[in-house]
Design goal:
Elements (H helix, E strand, L loop, with lengths): L1 H14 L5 H6 L7 E12 L24 E12 L11 E16 L5 E6 L9 H5 L7 E9 L9 H8 L4 E8 L9 E6 L13 H6 L5 E14 L6 E2 L2 E4 L9 E4 L1 E9 L11 E9 L1 E2 L2 H22 L1
Antiparallel strand pairs: 1-2, 1-13, 2-3, 3-4, 3-5, 4-7, 5-6, 6-8, 7-8, 8-12, 9-14, 10-11, 12-13
Helix pairs in contact: 1-6
Length: about 325
């Protein structure tokens, strides 16, 4: 009788959900990576860099993507599952990421593409995640992941309205992602803009050149690997590193491992020139492999041990 009671108790403990909140409810926690598919919108907060006109002056309206520029925006997760094929429970369930990061390096590649490496904005600086959200996650934070029940799609409104919604009681902040070089020096984020976006082949991409490609045109591919800086999935939940394949060239098929991997394609916003808040759209996937708290595993081990003990007693 005692053995049966302990067996049932162990089973009950093992089945208890250890991961609280909406984010925990949609991840599998079974050791199989989950794929999160998103649509996003973003904008550049240009640093005012102008191209020289060759006569000691600068060309008006020639602002271009350059080191120091800020990229901020929103991503909306629509599907989560082993292959990213499972829709969220209802159309009103929202999983929204708010991101903000800076261009830290630009490189003209041999094929004419221009690679922009991206990094976190120091917490105390304008445009950082902490500055936008009024939080204090530190200098490594780049993406805040929010969940909530909301009948509206905040990607269709202004960025300011989205920030107001995400910081209201409608949403909760479930995770913060970033480039944590102190703990994983391989964390990174990069975007390769197609040479077609550099219409005059001068190694600089202006916003006018981007607009000239037309709405919906592919402008870049992206890849990255992040660390989970904070989350609401339980103190003992941890993340099995997942692979992120860096873009090519210059070195093909370089793979590094991270808490979260990202890959995607950037296109000109369909609303280019209509909604001035956003110039870039993004279709991407994020891959994460969160595993349960050890207490669940211990419960199953206990259950197995009790079964072995019972068999031994039976044959004694």
């Amino acid at each position: 009788m005692i053995l049966r009671f302990l067996s049932v108790a162990a089973l009950v403990i093992a089945c208890l959900p250890a991961q609280a909140g909406f984010l925990g409810s949609v991840l599998s926690f079974d050791g199989t990576p989950d794929v999160l598919r998103d649509d996003s919108v973003s904008f550049f907060a240009d640093d005012g860099a102008l191209l020289p006109d060759g006569s000691g002056g600068f060309i008006a309206g020639s602002e271009h993507i350059s080191v120091g520029d800020r990229i901020s925006g929103l991503l909306k997760i629509d599907q989560v599952g082993p292959a990213g094929q499972t829709d969220l429970p209802t159309t009103d369930h929202r999983m929204i990421g708010l991101f903000s990061f800076a261009v830290t390096k630009e490189t003209v590649l041999g094929n004419g593409d221009i690679r922009y490496e991206l990094g976190a904005i120091p917490s105390a600086s304008a445009g950082s995640i902490d500055d936008i959200l009024g939080t204090s996650f530190g200098d490594d934070a780049m993406i805040g992941v929010f969940t909530g029940i909301d009948s509206t799609n905040i990607l269709t409104g202004s960025f300011a309205a989205a920030v107001a919604a995400l910081t209201s009681p409608t949403y909760s902040l479930d995770a913060v992602l970033g480039i944590d070089l102190a703990n994983n020096p391989l964390d990174y984020l990069e975007a390769d803009f197609t040479g077609d976006a550099d219409a005059n082949s001068d190694g600089k991409i202006t916003f006018a050149e981007l607009a000239g490609l037309g709405p919906g045109a592919t402008v870049a591919t992206e890849s990255g690997g992040f660390s989970v800086l904070s989350h609401t999935l339980g103190a003992s939940t941890h993340f099995i590193p997942v692979p992120s394949v860096h873009q090519t060239p210059p070195v093909p098929f370089v793979t590094t491992f991270h808490d979260v991997a990202l890959s995607g394609t950037l296109t000109n916003s369909e609303a280019f020139g209509v909604n001035p808040d956003y110039t870039i759209q993004d279709t991407a996937i994020l891959v994460v492999n969160a595993v349960p708290e050890p207490s669940s595993g211990l419960a199953w081990i206990t259950l197995l041990g009790l079964g072995v003990y019972g068999r031994r007693r039976k044959h004694a």
